[in-house]
Write a structure and sequence with these properties.
- It is a single chain.
- It is built from eleven helices and 21 strands.
- It has helices at 84-99, 109-118, 135-145, 147-153, 198-212, 214-223, 225-240, 269-277, 286-311, 327-337, 353-365, and strands at residues 24-27, 34-37, 58-59, 159-166, 171-178, 184-186, 191-193, 250-254, 281-285, 316-320, 343-345, 383-385, 389-394, 399-404, 409-411, 414-420, 429-437, 450-459, 471-477, 481-488, 494-500.
- Strands 4, 5, 6, 7, 10 and 11 form a six-stranded mixed β-sheet that branches. Strands 14-13-17-18 form a four-stranded antiparallel β-sheet, with no helix packed on it. A four-stranded antiparallel β-sheet has the order 16-19-20-21, with no helix packed on it.
- Strand 1 (24-27) and strand 2 (34-37) form a beta hairpin.
Length: 505
């Protein structure tokens, strides 16, 4: 079934028809009030006088939700919050209040619910009006529900296809299988890396640093962050986005008047003399841009290779996300994999693929809420491959008792069971401590890489039965949560708790 929806494309500060706006906030100097957000909060024309009451833009705060290496973590202003771990939450909450809703690359749902509640988007933290899905999953849903793509490239059930979601910060991949009734199965474990388009911007700054001096770039970042971002926006508009890999490509980057005149004061010595002779024009040729792109593109190609090796068969590659519009990236992927995959495609308006897929996902999850009467509509995710091994702690030596192994294909709402008895005859309760790890084989809960997911306490009132008191414990993997349940076999008493499925997102 096709759903009707409208994709917003009138973001302030962006060109008409652009489906995304920047995840950026600009505060006053004391960080008490948001003065601008989105594209308006980022770009700063160097010809305009800077107001001392305005702070530099706050950006990349979504990345604080993920497990980034230290050198990639965003540095957020101390004035946002006294506690470092609360700064990204403050920024996310403020952004939600302005925009309405955020689709992060990483999804610690507890944090996002807290921020959405503080932004008055939901009436209570655990409201079922707020649902989450992953960007990879949403992109896959968009591709299989768009009739032109499904009919031409995904005609048969059990067809496998690879989603490559190329965003600004990350590139995320997963291989899915199209099942009956537009349901999705998972073929491989998801993979990803920090190799989105913003890392090309960093390569551009490195390139420029070789010409003007790294010290000049450092001072520009520290003292004129808005002007630096304006310069990057000019690079994106005139070089990064239109670049195709053409050997004849050249561009004259004017640092004097048009783009970033404030940089000149920090350029010293031979670099200054050389640029003065060239009237502050930086000539950028094909090899220069290629060297900016290739370290990032090569990482994406390696990710795709691993997915194809693990899936064995793949009928199509769908490239979505803003970076997928790069003709150079498209050409490199096409050249590398055209003999291995029949169809390598960029869907219409790939930047909007994720948000459109998320809308369809929400409608299919709750058709009655949206007054859609169609008995054929079912939840769209049929199975997944577990990314972690799950188990419980048993015995005096914290032995890891495995319930579900990493790499297992599990149906939605499938249960993994185990039967346990108390350690001591006099126990009046049994605590199940649930652990997870990325290892396939694990013996002890104290091993490196094993983390506590949560706990469930079960009463054991019939002490006279000693050790003969069986408890059936199970983990059930739903679409967006894990339900831990325990049944006391002696008296039939049930216990359960729910964990968000961040681990498998």
């Amino acid at each position: 079934m096709n759903f009707d929806y409208h994709t917003y494309n009138l973001w302030a500060g962006n060109a008409y028809g652009k489906f995304k706006t920047n995840t950026v906030l600009r505060y006053d100097s004391e960080f008490k009030e948001v003065l601008a957000w989105g594209a308006l909060g980022l770009a700063k024309n160097p010809g305009r006088r800077r107001s001392e009451s305005v702070s530099k833009p706050v950006e990349l705060f979504k990345l604080a939700l993920g497990n980034l290496p230290e050198d990639l973590k965003p540095e957020l202003p101390p004035k946002l919050h006294l506690q470092t771990e609360q700064r990204h939450k403050r920024a996310i909450t403020d952004y939600l209040q302005k925009m309405g809703m955020l689709l992060p690359l990483f999804k610690p749902k507890k944090v996002m619910r807290e921020c959405a509640f503080k932004a008055n988007l939901i009436s209570k933290v655990d409201s079922d009006r707020l649902q989450f899905t992953t960007e990879r999953k949403a992109a896959a849903i968009y591709c299989i529900t768009k009739k032109s793509l499904r009919d031409n490239f995904l005609k048969d059930s059990d067809t496998s296809f690879l989603i490559v979601d190329c965003g600004g910060g990350t590139v995320d991949l997963t291989t899915r299988k199209l099942l009956s009734n537009c349901e999705l199965g998972e073929v491989t474990e998801r993979s990803g890396d920090f190799c989105g388009s913003t890392f090309i911007d960093k390569e551009f700054l490195k390139f420029l640093g070789k010409i003007v001096g790294d010290g000049a770039i450092k001072l520009l970042r520290e003292k004129h962050y808005g002007e630096m971002q304006y310069m990057i926006q000019e690079f994106c508009s005139n070089i990064k986005i239109p670049y195709t890999g053409d050997d004849q490509f050249t561009y004259d980057f004017d640092l004097d008047v048009e783009i970033c005149p404030v940089l000149k004061q920090y350029v010293l010595g031979e670099a200054k003399t050389s640029l003065e002779e060239k009237e502050w024009i930086v000539e950028i040729n094909n090899n220069d841009v290629k060297e900016m792109f290739d370290p990032i593109v090569e990482r994406i190609i390696r990710l795709i290779k691993v997915q194809l090796e693990n899936s064995h068969t793949c009928s199509a590659i769908f490239m979505v996300g803003g970076f997928s519009e790069s003709k150079y990236l498209q050409n490199r992927v096409q050249t590398e994999f055209q003999d291995k995959v029949a169809h390598i495609l960029v869907p219409p308006e790939p930047t909007a693929a994720v948000v459109r897929g998320a809308v369809i996902y929400g409608l299919r999850m709750n058709p009655s809420f949206y007054n859609i009467q169609d008995p054929s509509i079912k939840p769209i995710i049929k199975n997944r491959i577990l990314k972690f091994t799950y188990g419980v702690e048993v015995g005096m030596i914290s032995r890891f008792s495995t319930l579900a192994k990493r790499g297992t294909t599990t149906e939605v709402n499938q249960k993994f069971n185990g039967t346990f008895v108390p350690l001591f005859a006099y126990q009046s309760a049994m605590k199940f401590r649930i652990f997870i790890t990325q290892k396939h084989e694990v013996e002890c809960c104290l091993e490196e890489g094993v983390e506590l997911l949560g706990e469930l306490l079960v009463d054991l009132p019939d002490i006279d039965l000693g050790l003969d008191r069986k408890v059936k414990f199970s983990l059930c993997f739903g679409e967006e949560e894990i339900k831990a349940s325990a049944v006391n076999s002696t008296n039939g008493q049930n216990y359960h708790t729910v964990f968000n499925l961040d681990t498998e997102s």
